Amino acid sequence: MPTLHWVGKDQVRNHHRDVPYRVLRDNYKFEAPQPAPKNSLENRIIQGDNLEALKSLLPEFEGRVKCVYIDPPYNTGNESWVYNDNVNDPRIKRWLGKVVGKENEDMSRQDKWLCMMYPRLKLLHRLLSEDGSIWVSIDDNAVGILRPILDEIFGVGNFVTCVIWEKADSPRNSANQFSTDHDYILVYSKRPNWVPARLARTAESDSIYTNDDDDPNGPWIPGDPFANKPYSKGLFTITGPTGRQFSPPPGRYWRVSEERLRALDAEGRVWWGPKGEARPSIKRYLNEVGDLVPRTLWKKDVGSNRTSKNEMRAIFSDTSSFDTPKPSTLIGRILDIAADDDSIILDSFAGSGTTAHAVLKANAQDEGSRRFVLIELMDYAESLTAERVRRVISGYGDGTKQVAGLGGGFTYQTLAEPLFVEYGNLNPEAGLAAIRDYVAWQEGIYQQFRADYEEAKHRYWLGEANGLRVFFAYEADAITTFDLDLLAELVQTVGPVLVYADQLALGEDFMRRHSIGFKKIPRDIARL
Question: Domain 9-200+293-417 carries which CATH code?
Answer without folding.
Answer: 3.40.50.150
